[in-house]
Recover the amino acids of this structure.
């Protein structure tokens, strides 16, 4: 950026918007998250630095309780850090008013949870349409786009089934369709195969990889699944509050580059 504007981080410090390197879409700088206060406080993230290039597909691995979900929540502006700053397209999220952050989450971020969080009495299409209805898209238009998104994940024939009538694998596909119906720039997936059997887990991994490429997404996956991690372009380990490259994983081929996108 040529112009530098002043932002305010979560700890009240003035933060300048960053002149990020070309191609960096999402960045975390000195990110800390502490729960509680005093001697009983727990430091979950202890100065995380992360730069994610546009088109990258990154896996974050680590033991349960290491803070993988917390990190994803901070990157999605679903939570605020104790200190440090998250930047999207070089703009500090901490500087944005609440309505702008809500729009950022709705339009720029697609989030897939380990548990799908579908509304059981609503149809698959109605569940997928929810993010569009929240931005005041008309009901008919939202359903039309939901049907398109469900077709993309192989569930066109199940669009009018209630979520409670779907299998676990189908419900996770609906959750992925819901995450992508808004055409986000970033896909964040928190243990997307954690509740699935091996067969469905492989199918979901194939689907995420295909959609990552088809939608030119920037994707960050928190996972315990080593097979899923190995299919990502970079694998980072989060442990003891620190994020480092994980040399134990054989790296997958490089993600889509800027030249390949055009």
């Amino acid at each position: 950026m040529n112009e530098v504007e002043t932002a305010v981080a979560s700890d009240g410090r003035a933060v300048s918007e960053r002149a990020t390197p070309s191609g960096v879409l999402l960045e975390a700088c000195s990110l800390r998250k502490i729960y509680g206060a005093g001697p009983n406080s727990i430091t979950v993230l202890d100065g995380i630095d992360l730069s994610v290039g546009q088109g990258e597909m990154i896996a974050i691995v680590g033991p349960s309780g290491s803070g993988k979900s917390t990190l994803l929540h901070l990157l999605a502006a679903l939570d605020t850090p104790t200190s440090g700053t998250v930047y999207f397209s070089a703009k500090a999220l901490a500087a944005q008013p609440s309505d702008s952050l809500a729009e950022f989450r709705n339009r720029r971020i697609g989030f897939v949870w380990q548990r799908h969080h579908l509304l059981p009495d609503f149809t698959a299409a109605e569940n997928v349409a929810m993010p569009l209805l929240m931005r005041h898209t008309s009901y008919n238009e939202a359903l039309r786009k939901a049907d398109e998104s469900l077709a993309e994940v192989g569930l066109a024939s199940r669009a009018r089934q209630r979520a409670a009538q779907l299998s676990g694998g189908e419900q996770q596909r609906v959750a992925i369709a819901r995450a992508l119906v808004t055409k986000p720039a970033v896909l964040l997936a928190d243990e997307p195969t954690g509740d699935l059997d091996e067969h469905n887990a492989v199918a979901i991994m194939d689907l995420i990889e295909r959609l990552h490429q088809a939608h030119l997404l920037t994707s960050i996956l928190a996972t315990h699944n080593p097979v899923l991690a190995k299919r990502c372009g970079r694998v980072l380990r989060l442990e003891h509050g620190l994020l480092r490259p994980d040399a134990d994983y054989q790296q997958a081929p490089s993600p889509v580059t800027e030249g390949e996108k055009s």
Summary: The longest helix spans residues 198-214. The CA atoms of residues 28 and 86 lie 4 Å apart. The chain is about 30% helix and 25% strand.
